[in-house]
Here is the input.
Amino acid sequence: MLCGDSEGCFMRWLILAGLWLCYASFGVTVASLAPLVPIVQADLNMSHSAMGSVMGAWQLVYIVAAIPCGMLLDRLGGRLALTLGVGLVVLSGLGRAFADDYWTLLLAVMLFGVGGPIISSGAPMIVTGVFQGSQRGLAMGIYMTGPTIGGILALTLTHAVLLPLFDQSWRAVMLLWSAFALAGAVLWFVIASLAGPKVPGFRQQAASGSSAGPVSKPGGGSIVIDILRGPGIKLLLLMAVGAFLFNHGLNNWLPELLRTGGLSVVEAGYWAAFPLLVGVFGSLIIPRLATPERRFKIIFMLCVAAAVVSLALQFQHPLILAASLFLQGLVRSSLMTVLILTLVELPAIQEQQTGTASGLFFSAAEVGGVLGPLGLGFMFDLTGGFDAGLYALAAVAGAMALGTLRLSRLTGSEPRGRQKPG
Here is the structure.
């Protein structure tokens, strides 16, 4: 039975719907600039290198901001912190819409790097508090479809619908996505205010005001040190770097990889969209299956699948290509989710530290998010092809599979007792 209390059950899933809107706002804003690049470059008189620095700016800010944002989550609670996070995403969109040169656009995109980690760290913190057992994995899988669907909306609607509708004004498109994010922020605040008090485990207010009690250490730095001392934490963070390196590296270079392999631009675009669609379904299935007793087996299989994908993408036979992109869709949608689920359920992570722990996870992981695209591009320039980069990704995935075996011995498979419903 999914829920014993029908009202409480409904309120849990209502909170999850609010989280989904927050993460969809995240995904829409991340993807909103990519289809507009030629128009924005022409309007603001920007070079390709300048535009590249703009598109990567938020990730660098994210690395620095993720841990402080996680601490902020532990202090403010989910309702206020996520409202603030989505609000910063709204301001980032508005700043893009009114940018009149390189620097104003750069600052607007950088602002997203402050709001984004509040959302990505806050979602697992809230889900961990209000869901238990297999429901927790399912809930994480559901909200992880938010950024994927948001990105699909931005990529597919911009040229086909929105630019013709707004007389080719890219600024109007940005304003529309900002309005979408604003609606998400308002709805989240309303949902969290009405449903939060009725759901046990929802940390609406600051951690010091919750039943969990105050944060164990007064200093933010000492909390991070405490977390890092936990068995297996550093290894898990290294695996997070590897997961993002694989995902972001292939996500950014897949269309070009397929094109250089012999496909046309149109064919490469269709094939590159296939893992996104697979990922939506993978997010709904695999995290729910990743219960503690089989979690490390699933992580191991996903890492092996990532290695297979990296090797198989060197072949352009349609059947091999379809199978490898299918596996890539499963890996990209599930590996990160199962890793963060593993982290927040480790006995070393106290309930009132989940925000900080999530921020630490994404701060480390985003290092891989930056190195993946840069590394594949550098190795292409060095060797004249993607094969060397794909071999490197396969090696990283293989090392992660071995790391999973070590992690299972360091941490065991049992989550802490607070998983049990109260």
Summary: The chain has a mean pLDDT of 85. Residues 1-199 form a domain with the Growth Hormone; Chain: A; fold (CATH 1.20.1250.20). Residues 242 and 396 are 6 Å apart (CA to CA).
